Amino acid sequence: MLKNITLSKSSSPRGVVVPFTRALGLLAAFTPDEKWLGNGDLVMRTNLPASTVSRIVQTLVKLGYLAHDAENRKYCLTSLVLTLGYGATANSEVQQVAYAYMQSFAERHKLCVNLSSRDRLDMIVLESYQSVDSMLAFNLSVGVRLSIASSPTGWALLAALPELERYYLLENIERRMSRDWPRLRRRALEGLSQVSRVGFCTSLGEWGSEISTVAAPLLGNNHAPLVLTCIGSSQMMTRARVEREIGPQLLAMISSIQQRVSP
User: Fold this and answer.
1) Number of folded domains in the chain?
2) Among 12, 14, 90, 100, which residue is least crowded by beta carbons within 10 Å?
3) Which residues, in sequence order, are CB contacts of 256 under 8 Å at separation 6+?
4) Which pLDDT tens digit goes with each residue over 36-70?
């Protein structure tokens, strides 16, 4: 179990190279659904000054990471960006091992299972498998993003982080989602406490009466914290079934994955 889980504020981490983080932030602003973005789009998505965005974008074009459509005054990622992550994804033993377990778990319980990691203030789906017998259809394919603060996937990730990193992320989430922060903070606290007590956190019919979610962190010495999330119909994922069966079996699956990928 994870202990000493609290929410607070802290100063930003030292030793951060700001221009580098800004450049990575611009690259991460592009999504599969919106491949072409203009300067205005990038300013809105990164909260950076327009002049800063313009300078960084010009540099990324010169380096070959972005392509420029002069007529529409927009940019898109080039294939060179793939080199930044290909080695990690192509050789990720934990993803390969986890996927086989995810398939079996999803089919056995007739639900969807996702493996996610953190990307700035979001969770991004790395692997996803949905049972053919699932009662609901989910649009949670690889690459889909979820807010850290508003889902069990994010709460499980926060619970797995070192305290200083958790504080830093929550401070930034509060600035980005100030209007909804009181509600999100309360719910995140509950999720973090639940992970501390039983190893997983839940949202049972909370965001939509038909959907229930269970999530737990997947930790390892050779990779950043990941999260395994089960999503299914509230009819199938009742509180009693989640607490007695799905939650404990999710933890057992995580333990099996950890044993397989441990050095």
Assistant:
1) 2
2) 14
3) 101
4) 999 999 999 889 999 999 999 999 998 888 999 98
